[in-house]
Every structure is written in C-alpha cells, then in structure tokens.
Amino acid sequence: MEVQFSDSQAQLARLAGAAGRIANETAVVSEALELREERERQRLEFVASLDSATER
User: Fold this and answer.
1) Domain ranges of the chain
2) pTM, 2 dp
C-alpha cells in the first residue's frame, strides 16, 4: 500500500524522526492505525453503553 502524506503530515513525521520519537514513515502509519483502532474500540464501547442505558 502506498500512503501519501500531506505537507504538514510529512513535516510532523520528519520532526518526530529527528527527535527520535519514531523510526521511519512505516512507524508513523502503524501508530496512526493503532490510534484509529483504539478510537473505534472506544466508540463501540460508548455505543454499547448507550444501548444498555436505553434498555433499562
């Protein structure tokens, strides 16, 4: 898969790399996907809690 970074995303990745927070662009994409997965998990938990509350 090919990923295109916006200019600001590329700059952020370069700065993070220079500071030693990431190893490479692949690490940036992996971290972004992990964060997206976590966000989706939280959304699903929230929706489930709403469903549970309305069933009472």
Assistant:
1) 8-55
2) 0.74
